[in-house]
Amino acid sequence: MKREWLVKARKEKGVSQAKVARAIGVAPVTYGRYEAGDRTPSPNIATAIGAVLNVPREKFFWP
């Protein structure tokens, strides 16, 4: 299930998937899988994404 809220947050910041991936220390394909809903980030990575995109990390774990 695609995480539209995550895609929207990234686009509102005007950054690419690759830029977010570099900022949080994962491969771009891995970050893409987070947006696609194919993978759930670890709590530490979710926190890092939250810091970069200003989204609550809890959104990854509770719909």
Structure overview:
This protein is mainly alpha-helical and 63 residues long. 60% of the residues lie in helices and 0% in strands. The protein has 4 helices and no strands. The relative contact order is 0.21. The model has no long low-confidence stretch (mean pLDDT 94).
Blueprint (SSEs and pairs):
Elements: H1 4-13, H2 17-24, H3 28-36, H4 43-53
Q: What name is given to the CATH topology?
A: 434 Repressor (Amino-terminal Domain)
Portion in strands: under 5%
Kindly state the number of beta strands: 0
Low-pLDDT regions: none
Order of helices and strands: HHHH
Please state the CA-atom Rg, rounded to the nearest Å: 10 Å
Task: Name the structural class.
Answer: mainly alpha
Individual helix count: 4
Q: Please tell me the CATH architecture by its name.
A: Orthogonal Bundle
CATH superfamily: lambda repressor-like DNA-binding domains
* Mean pLDDT metric: 94
The biggest sheet amounts to: none
How far the N terminus sits from the C terminus, by CA atoms, comes to: 11 Å
Shape: globular
Helix content estimate = 55-70%
Domain module tally: 1
